Amino acid sequence: MKIWYLSLIRCIGKIEDIICFSGLMICSFLVFFQVLNRYLLHFEIMWIGDLSLYIYVPLLFLTIAMTAREKGHTTVDVFVDMFFNNRPNALLVYQIGINTIVLGILFYLLPLGHKLFVNALKYPEYGTLVTWFNTSWHRETLYIVIILCIIHTLHHLGVQISELYTKFHTADPDSNLSSDN
Q1: Considering Cα of 87, then 89, then 94, then 98, what sign does the dihedral take?
Q2: Crossing angle of helices 2-39/137-170, nearest 10°?
Q3: Nearest Cα residue to 161 out of 97, 107, 85
Q4: Rounded distance between C-alpha atoms, residue 157 and residue 95, angstroms
Q5: pLDDT for 126-148, tens place per residue?
Q6: Nearest to 91 by CA among 17, 148, 173, 163
Q7: Residue 109 in contact with residue 145, Cβ under 8 Å?
Q8: Other CB atoms closer than 10 Å to residue 87's CB: what's the count?
Q9: 93: closest CA among 165, 152, 150?
Q10: Are 119 and 139 in contact, with CB atoms under 8 Å apart?
Q11: Which of 10, 26, 48, 12 is CA-nearest to residue 130?
Q12: Rounded to whole angstroms, what are the CA distances from 94 to 63, 66, 132, 153, 167?
């Protein structure tokens, strides 16, 4: 079960990486093509800029989930270093508390994201210059990102709680006495 779970988490991470990498490459190609058309061929295709923006914005949202996966959100390291420098157990309890607060905020945002998601499916919006492109996926992406952030935060929280549990049960003074006898 644990192997299946960890492979699922790795698979979600790989899918996020592939989507972000391919989307960034497509956006870069579209912008390069637009600059090439505008300055060398003197022929501007207006919808290329809009299309690259429509692809870039959801990728920007997806990087929020990737950052949650990598535990890379901005933290106040001075505070952490000042209070938890030589106390790894206290740091672990602090991280569990922070992740619990983050999880609470994400669960608070989940119904709001779901409402946006359902409305985006019901009432699609189309681009101004790229009239065939459904831009509602910006709102749909937000809901998916919230779900991915919940998955990553739950994973980190589970690992931290398991680590704390292991530390307290292996550091039991009674177990040291029984091993000495």
Answers
A1: positive
A2: 140
A3: 97
A4: 8
A5: 877 777 778 888 888 889 999 99
A6: 163
A7: no
A8: 11
A9: 165
A10: yes
A11: 48
A12: 25, 22, 49, 14, 15
From the list 88, 90, 96, the residue with the least C-alpha distance to 154 is: 96
Which residues have C-beta within 8 Å of that of residue 155, sequence separation ≥ 6?
Answer: 9
Q: Give CA–CA dist 89/99, Å, rounded.
A: 15
- 166: tokens are 């292991």
The per-residue pLDDT of the chain, averaged, comes to 84
Count of CB atoms situated within 10 Å of the CB of 42:
7
Among 34, 166, 174, 153, smallest CA distance to 105 is for 153
Q: Which of 138, 136, 147, 155 is nearest to 109 (CA)?
A: 147
Tokens (6 digits) for 129: 């210059």
d(CA 58, CA 120): 14
pLDDT in tens, 72-88: 766 666 777 777 778 88
Q: In one letter, which amino acid is 127?
A: G
How high is the pLDDT of residue 172? Answer: 53
Q: What phi, psi does 74 have (nearest 5°)?
A: -65, 130
Cβ atoms within 10 Å, residue 176: 10
